[in-house]
Amino acid sequence: MDTERIAYQQGGKNKSMSEIELKCAVQKYLEVEQEIEERQVELASLKNSIKAAMEERNVDELCVGEWVVRSKTVLTSIFDKTRFKLKYEELYNSFLKQVESKKFSIS
Predict the structure, then answer these.
(1) What is the C-alpha separation between 52 and 69, in angstroms, rounded?
(2) Nearest to 71 by CA among 80, 61, 63
(3) Which of 40, 41, 68 shows the shortest CA–CA distance to 54?
């Protein structure tokens, strides 16, 4: 019988997870992660098909049943931090701050 338990938090309460439970949780995590990746590929494919149909009709707005689908070009201004850093490196560095975080990975 597996008696080693690993502490974790759920809903603000400390729980204890056995090695077997932890292995099952990691396996389930990896399965769900794979499903999400597959669904994201499917989602991108559907989006591209819809956009292609709109381009074929030469429209940027299309009524489809109860939905209105839009694919419009928008202009956005973004800050070019790479160029700024090259030109004003000292100023750029003076605004940097270190932030501590944890990276979660399974390999």
Answers:
(1) 12
(2) 61
(3) 68
Buried b (16+ CB within 10 A) or exposed e, 11-47: eeeeeebeeeeeeeeeeeeeeeeeeeeeeeeeeeeee
Q: E strands along 38-99, which residues?
A: 61-64, 67-70
Cβ burial of 71 (10 Å; 0-12, 13-18, 19+) is middle
Task: Give this prediction's pTM.
Answer: 0.68
> pLDDT digits over 6-24, tens only?
556 666 565 778 889 889 9
Tokens of 55: 């381009």
